[in-house]
Design goal:
Elements lengths: L21 H7 L17 E2 L27 E4 L8 E16 L6 E21 L2 E17 L3 E6 L6 E7 L2 E5 L8 H14 L5 H4 L5 E4 L4 E4 L1 H8 L7 E9 L9 E16 L2 E16 L5 E15 L6 H4 L1 E14 L2
Antiparallel strand pairs: 1-8, 2-9, 3-4, 3-15, 4-5, 5-6, 5-7, 7-8, 10-11, 11-12, 12-13, 13-14, 14-15
Length: 340
C-alpha cells in the first residue's frame, strides 16, 4: 500500500440541500444536507473522523479484582473485538410512505410518496498495516427506489453499488481505495461514508455497556444512548435527521444461558433544512427491538417502526396558501447482520 497523500476530508455527519420545488422538497429526503457541508483539503478519498468514533473507557479502579461479582439480576456480555479474518454481512432495508397535502383550500391537493432504501454490505477485517485498521467493504447492493406523483417509480443504483473498496483507518481518519489501489473520488467516498460511520471501529455495544472484559445490563433498567453511538444502532440513512434520544431496555432472558439478549428500543428524531427562503421541519419517532449476541456484544438484528411528520414552513410575508405543505406516514427500518 502506498503512503497516503494529504487527502480530502469529508464530515460524515453531513446533510444535503433539498430541491427548490416544494413537492420535491417535501418528498425527496436526500442523503446529504446543507447543515454541515463537507470541508475539502487536498486529494480525494479520505473521510473525516466523526465516523464511528467511540469514547474511551476509564481504566479499572485499583480495588477491582477478577472475582468481583456482577450486580444482582445482571445479564453478562463478553467483549470480542474485531480481528483479521472476521467477516459479516449487513442487510438493511428502509421503507417510508408519506401521505401529504400541498396548499390550502381549492389549491390544495392530496399526494402520496414512497421511498425504499436497500443495502447488502459484506465487511471483512483485513490484517493491519503499520498499526492501521484495514477493512474491505463489498457493496453487493445499494439502491434507492422512489415513487412520486405523476413521475411514477424510479430506481437508482448508488455510486458504490457493486464496488469493493478497501478502507484504511489511521487514528480518526479513513482513506478509501478501489480495487486498483487508487483513492476513490469525493462522491464515492461520501457514499461509502454513510455505511462506514454505522460500522465503527468496534461493536457499538462496547461503548454502550459498562467497560470491562465482562460487561453487563440489568433487565428493566433503561440505558440512554447518545450521539454517534445512537445513530450507529438505529442505522438511520436520512442524514438531515438527528437522533434526539434513544432508550434501550433489556428484556429478561428466556433462558439463563441464552445466546442473545433483546433490548426494547425507543427513539425520537428531529431536524430541518433550508430550502430557498423556506424551512422544512422533520420529526420522527420509532420503537422496536435490538438483538445483541452475548458472547461478542455484536448486534444481530435491528427492527424499528414508527411515524414521520414533515412540515414546510413559509417565511413571513410569503403566500402561505401556495407554499404550505404537511405530510405524515409510517417508517420502518430493518437490519440483519450475519457471519456470512
Amino acid at each position: 500500500m502506498r503512503t497516503h497523500p494529504i487527502a480530502r476530508h469529508i464530515q460524515t455527519n453531513c446533510t444535503s440541500g433539498l430541491p427548490l420545488v416544494v413537492l420535491a422538497v417535501l418528498f425527496s429526503l436526500p442523503t446529504c444536507g446543507q447543515a454541515n457541508e463537507p470541508s475539502t483539503t487536498g486529494a480525494t478519498g479520505t473521510l473525516q473522523a466523526a465516523v464511528g468514533r467511540l469514547p474511551g473507557h476509564a481504566p479499572k479502579a485499583a480495588d477491582d479484582t477478577p472475582d468481583k461479582k456482577l450486580p444482582k439480576d445482571a445479564v453478562s456480555f463478553k467483549r470480542l473485538a474485531y480481528k483479521p479474518g472476521d467477516r459479516f454481512v449487513a442487510r438493511t432495508r428502509l421503507e417510508l410512505k408519506l401521505n401529504a397535502r400541498l396548499g390550502v383550500g381549492f389549491l390544495g391537493q392530496e399526494v402520496t410518496y414512497r421511498r425504499e432504501e436497500e443495502e447488502v454490505l459484506a465487511v471483512t477485517i483485513l490484517p493491519e498495516e503499520d498499526g492501521d485498521l484495514r477493512r474491505s467493504l463489498e457493496f453487493k447492493q445499494r439502491r434507492t427506489s422512489t415513487t412520486l406523483p405523476i413521475v411514477g417509480k424510479e430506481t437508482e443504483d448508488r455510486r458504490v453499488a457493486g464496488k469493493t473498496l478497501t478502507v484504511t483507518t489511521k487514528g480518526n481518519e479513513h482513506t478509501i481505495y478501489n480495487k486498483s489501489g487508487r483513492e476513490v473520488n469525493e462522491k464515492v467516498a461520501k457514499e461509502a461514508g454513510y455505511s462506514l460511520r454505522i460500522l465503527g471501529r468496534q461493536p457499538v455495544f462496547f461503548a454502550v455497556l459498562p467497560p470491562g472484559e465482562e460487561a453487563y445490563a440489568i433487565p428493566g433498567k433503561t440505558i440512554e444512548v447518545q450521539g454517534e453511538d445512537a445513530r450507529r444502532i438505529v442505522g438511520l440513512p436520512f442524514e438531515e435527521l438527528g437522533v434526539d434520544s434513544l432508550q434501550l431496555t433489556l428484556r429478561p432472558l428466556d433462558k439463563k444461558d441464552s445466546a442473545v439478549a433483546i433490548f426494547d428500543a425507543n427513539a425520537s428524531f428531529s431536524g430541518s433544512t433550508i430550502v430557498g427562503d423556506s424551512q422544512l421541519q422533520l420529526t420522527a419517532s420509532l420503537s422496536g427491538e435490538v438483538v445483541v449476541m452475548r458472547n461478542t456484544m455484536r448486534m444481530a438484528s435491528v427492527e424499528l417502526s414508527g411515524h414521520v411528520d414533515a412540515q414546510h414552513e413559509p417565511t413571513p410575508g410569503s403566500d402561505e396558501g401556495l407554499l404550505s405543505a404537511t405530510g405524515s406516514g409510517p417508517l420502518v427500518i430493518r437490519r440483519k447482520i450475519t457471519d456470512s
